[in-house]
Amino acid sequence: MLNKKEVEEIRKDFLYLDKKYNNPIVYLDNAATSQKPIQVIDSVSEYYKYENANPHRGAHTLSVLSTEVYENGRKKVAKFINAREESEVVFTRNTTESLNLLAYSYANEKLKEGDEIVISIMEHHSNLVTWQEAAKKTNAKLKYLYIDKKTKQLDFEEFKNAITEKTKIFSITQASNVVGTMPDVEKMIKYVKSVNKDCICIVDCAQYIPHNKVDVQKLGCDFLVFSGHKMLSIMGAGVLYGRKELLNSLKPFLYGGDMIEYVFEDKSSYLDAPGRFEAGTQDVGAVKSLISAIDYIENIGIENIRDYEKSLMDYAYDRILEKSDIIDVYTTNDKNRSPVLDFNFKEAHPHDVASIMDSFGIAIRSGHHCAQPLHRYLQTNFSCRASFAFYNTIEEVDFFIEHLEDVRRLMRIGTK
Ligand SMILES: Cc1ncc(COP(=O)(O)O)c(C=O)c1O
After folding, report:
1. Please, are residues 215 and 69 in contact by the beta-carbon 8 Å criterion?
2. Dihedral, CA atoms, 324, 330, 333, 339, nearest 10 degrees?
3. Number of the ligand 1 atom closest to the C-alpha atom of 175
4. Which CATH code of 3.40.50.960, 3.90.1150.10, 3.30.300.10, 3.40.50.620 fits the domain covering 4-28+301-409?
5. Which CATH number fits domain 41-298: 3.40.47.10, 3.40.710.10, 3.40.640.10, 1.10.3720.10?
6. What is the whole-number distance in angstroms between the Cα of residue 50 and the centre of ligand 1?
7. Tens digit of each residue's pLDDT (9 = 90 or more) over 229-266
C-alpha cells in the first residue's frame, strides 16, 4: 500500500494542487473524471510536437510514427487487460460509445422478439438507455436485477431466476458509480454461460478499471468497456474489448474512411476488427495519453492504488456514519466496494451541499449521476458523491468531513 511519503511525491505530478484558485482544491470528483498527471499531459504535447500526422494513411515518416503510436496503444491496452491479442481492442471515444456500438451492431442485427436482455438497476444510463432502445427496436424484453435496499448487493438466487435460455444479452457494471457495489461478475458470467453459452456477456468496467486489476480472460466476458479519462488519460480514448470471432461477426457501427477493404459504386467490403469499427481519423493524441496513463498506473502498481484508496474510503465511510442524525448514506456497507461515498443530507438539497462545499474548495458531485432509475429505486431523485483517488489524502478526507458541519450550520439543519 502507498505510504504518506509516496503519496506526497505522487501529488507533485498533479498540477491543479499547485495552482492558486480561490481556495486550494480538494478534488473528490474522481468517479466523474480523474485528474491527469504531468507525464500524461506531456505525452500528448510530445505527440503533437513531433509525431502528429493522420495515422494509417500516409507513407511519410510522420504518418508512420503516428500509426506506430496508435497501434502501440492497442498493444498496451491488450496487455493491460490480458486480451488474447491486440486486434481484440477497439478504440472508441468513451464507455458510452463502446456500449452504443454494441447495442447498435449486435442488438439490431441479432436480437429478435422474445429474446431477453438482463441488466441491473445499478447501471449508468449508458448501459441502460442503450438496451432500452435496442429492446424497443427489436421487441426484445429488458429485465432488471434489483439490489437489496439495505446492503446494496444483488441477490444471486434472484439473478439465477432471471437468466434463462432466452437471455441473449447480459450487461452489467463491475462497480457502481453510485452505491459502490462490486458484483462478482466472474461468477455471474460463469452461470450465464452454463445456462446459455451463446448469451453475450458485457462488462461495464468504467468505475472498476481505475482501481483494480482487470483480466478479460479470467472474467470470461465477451465484451468489456471503459473510458481512459477516468484512469488518468485525457478525454477521447475509450475502449471496447471484444472476443475476436464475435467482433468479426458484427456489422460496423460507423462507415467511411479507414474501415473498408474494397469500395465499388454499389457495394463495399470491410476490414476485420478492430479496423472495421474505427472509421474516420482516430484520436491518436488521446491514445498516446492512455499509454502514458497505463505506464503511470503500472509504475505505482494497481494493487497499491487499490489498497490505498480502500483505506481512504473505509475511513471516510466510518466518519460520515458519525453524522447519521443528519445524513443518509447510500454506499454499500460491504468493504469490497468502489471508492465512491454517496449520501444525502436529510434536510438539504445536493446542489446546496455541493455549492457550500465548493465555497471551501471541495469538489464533490451532486445530481443523479446518470443513474436515475437507481435513485428512484432508492427513493430519492439525487444524491451527493465524494469519490477518491490515490492522489487524495486522509487530511483531505478529514477536511471534507469537517466541512459537512458547515452545511449543517449554513442550512440551519437541526437548529431551532
Ligand atoms: C459505471 C459507468 N458506466 C459508464 C459511464 C460512462 O462513461 P463515459 O461518460 O466516459 O462514456 C460512467 C461514467 O460516469 C460510469 O460511471
Report:
1. no
2. -110
3. 1
4. 3.90.1150.10
5. 3.40.640.10
6. 32
7. 999 999 999 999 999 999 999 999 999 999 999 999 99
pLDDT tens-digit readout, 103-139: 999 887 899 999 999 999 999 999 999 999 999 999 9
Give CA–CA dist 211/136, Å, rounded. 35
Taking the centre of ligand 1 as the mean of its atom positions, its distance from the CA of residue 206, in whole angstroms, is: 6
Mutate which of 29, 98, 126 for ligand 1? The one with the most ligand atoms within 8 Å of its CB, which is 126
Distance 14 CA to ligand 1 centre (A): 23
Q: Which pLDDT score is estimated for 109?
A: 80
* SS3 state at 101: helix
What is the residue with the minimal CA distance to atom 14 of ligand 1? 32
Atom of ligand 1 nearest to the CA of 177: 16
- Cα–Cα distance measured from residue 292 to residue 299, given in angstroms and rounded to the nearest whole number: 10
DSSP of 173-191: ESS-TTT-B---HHHHHHH
Cα(31) to centroid of ligand 1, in Å?
Answer: 9
Beta-carbon contacts of 347 under 8 Å, excluding residues fewer than 6 positions away, are 326, 411, 413, 414
Which protein residues are within 6 Å of ligand 1, measured from CB? 94-96, 124, 126-127, 173, 177, 204, 206-207, 227
pTM for the full predicted model: 0.97
Question: Cα–Cα distances in Å, from 102 out to 98, 176, 200, 246?
Answer: 6, 20, 10, 11
- Are 127 and 173 in contact by the 8 Å Cβ rule? The answer is yes
Query: Which residue numbers are catalytic?
Result: 370
